[in-house]
Amino acid sequence: MKVERLLNILMYLINHDKVSANALAKHFDVSKRTIQRDIDHLTLAGIPIYSEIGRSGGYQLMDHFKMDKNYLNASESNLLYTFLSDIERTTPSDEIQTTCNKLMALFPQETDNDRLIIQMMPQFIQENFSAVFNQLTRARDEHLKVIVIYIDAELNETKRIIHPYRLVLMGNTWYVYGFCELRDAFRLFKISRMIRCDCSEKTFTVRDLPDKLPWHNQMDSDRKSEKIVLELDRCLLGRLSDYFDYHNCDVQEDKIIATLNFPIDEWLLTLLCQLIPYVKIIEPLSLKKKFNDRLQKAIQNNI
């Protein structure tokens, strides 16, 4: 029994007055007995489904449960379809394609893709990315262990056995969050660093997730945030909102003082490098030293 099929059966009943068990079984490519069990699960969950027996019988929702067709209008469907389609182009996924097809089925004549354009930066140049992503999707849904060949920041290969729980998109980077048998702990893995991923036929026991999850802070870092003060050239004024909360920026005659709270990690150093030569670190001194060390190394490598 899959939660997705239960939801799809519910949506099907919402959009049809009455449907027989045979028709549902054919539509969802399962047995009539499976449909009957699914209907029982929905009924136990409190969904008011009325059933009639006989040649003209079938299942239907009670009238008071019918969903207003304005619950999802054409414009909202277009927004979801455009966003998901762009993700599907950069990260091909069967489940995303299925969702797009369902949206098209709801509004076949009304979806206007020219009204909203979303272009995410494609980063995935690995030929095997789609295969890895779909393997992880299957493993997540069926609670299967995956055997992964993973490269670390130093390009060293390690073999990991991972129990995948979540697929996470942060910024333009895809991750899988799961339990790592090697580390005996939950970890966040960059999918772009997986050069091979194979589903095993061994299932894993679902564990409770930690209270604190990596994406709650919207940062790929476990470090605590620190107060950071930057002096920026005024020429960055037009790009200020791309990087900082303008409420925390003091715009002066010839410079901008930006105050922020971030972990001092690779993400922050990469951001500061994008602002060269228009940034000066006021505090903390530890960040200034790390930044200067990186600059010196870059200069030495290019002499």
TrEMBL record:
SUPFAM superfamilies named among the record's database cross-references: Winged helix' DNA-binding domain
Domain HTH deoR-type span(s) in chain numbering: 2-62
UniProt superkingdom: Bacteria
Name of the molecule in the record: YafY family transcriptional regulator
High-level lineage: Bacteria, Bacillati, Bacillota, Clostridia, Eubacteriales
PROSITE patterns: HTH_DEOR_2, WYL
Originating species: Fusibacter ferrireducens
Signal peptide per UniProt: none
Keywords: Transcription, Transcription regulation
